[in-house]
Amino acid sequence: MKQLSEFEVGFLIGILVGEGHFGGDGKQPQVTLRMHTDHEALFTWLERKFPRAKLYGPYHHGGRSYFQWMARGKVLSEDLLPLLEKHLRPELDGKAWARLQAMKQRYGL
Fold first, then answer.
1. Is the pLDDT of residue 11 over 90?
2. Using CA atoms, how far apart are residues 94 and 88, in angstroms rounded to an integer?
3. Phi/psi of residue 49, nearest 5 degrees
4. What pLDDT, in 10s, does the model give residues 17-57?
5. What are phi and psi of 70, to 5 degrees?
6. 54 and 70 Cβ atoms separated by less than 8 Å
7. Are 109 and 81 in contact (CB under 8 A)?
8. How many Cβ atoms from other residues are within 10 Å of residue 100's Cβ?
9. pLDDT score at 33
10. DSSP result, 27-94
11. Which residues are CB-contacts of 48 (< 8 A; sequence separation ≥ 6)?
12. Which fold has domain 6-102?
């Protein structure tokens, strides 16, 4: 992971709280961000800052166009999860915090 400024950490946490998904595929945990292709600059930034994560797309179907960014494996456990655990608090967003806790519990993180 590339070094993030305080602003970038806050920006990332905000995007994941609002648009991210904390879950998994039944075998391994993952954090997923799926957004319209209009947000391509955001996904380019994520690729630069988290080069071990995967970016899929653009996908086009059902009248929708979107990218999907996924953090799982080492990028999740070593890069993203420490940031989330440090900065995402229930007093900031209880629902997102609870989703993160459920993912951690389900996958033994």
1. yes
2. 9
3. -80, -30
4. 999 999 999 999 999 999 999 999 999 999 999 999 999 99
5. -130, 130
6. yes
7. yes
8. 23
9. 98
10. SSEEEEEEEEGGGHHHHHHHHHH-TTSEEEEEEEETTEEEEEEEEETHIIIIIIHHHHHHH--TTT-H
11. 2
12. Endonuclease I-creI (3.10.28)
The CB-side HSE value for 103 (13 A sphere, CA atoms) comes to 23
Q: Percent of the chain beyond pLDDT 90? A: 96
Q: Is 27 exposed, middle or buried (0-12, 13-18, 19+ CB in 10 A)?
A: exposed
Q: Domain limits of the chain?
A: 6-102
What per-residue confidence (pLDDT) applies to 42?
98
Distance CA 55, CA 32 (A): 10
Query: Structure pTM?
Result: 0.92
